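Example record

One chain of 155 residues, shown exactly as stored in the release files.
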Amino acid sequence: MHIRIGVAVAVSALALASVGAVSAAPARKAVAVNIAGSTHLDTVVSPFVLQDVGTVSGSPVGSGDITLIYTLMPKRGVAVTTFTITNANGTVTGKAVSKYTVNTVTLSFTGAGRLTGGTGKYAGITSGPLQFNALHSVTGKKEAISFVGRATKPA
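Predicted structure tokens for this chain:
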């Protein structure tokens, strides 16, 4: 009888150990996000949806191309922006929500963004809130954007 109980305890311990190994979260590494770039208006999709394209550089992507799609909500003065950064190492995707203001010379966006995923070298990247800023000329020819904060990615 003691042998059966000992075997049962040993089998249970092995089962728990293997479950623990399977369910353990993969290690993640914290990285700084400090991305800046310049863009320009590419397409007016509709009166309230604008697509910008340009280039960015900084941590953690190095340099690459960026596409941003701004969906403006004029009654609230809010924009929801999705973006994709692409380079030879993969892509990083994200989303930002910002307040925007318009004056005779500029359109300014200030809010918070998040990295929501990636491919290639950036697979599994995510972030908490990132400071998001964009400044557009009303002509759409010269625009500056930035993302600042912290992200995590698989180690």
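Notes: The longest helix spans residues 2-23.
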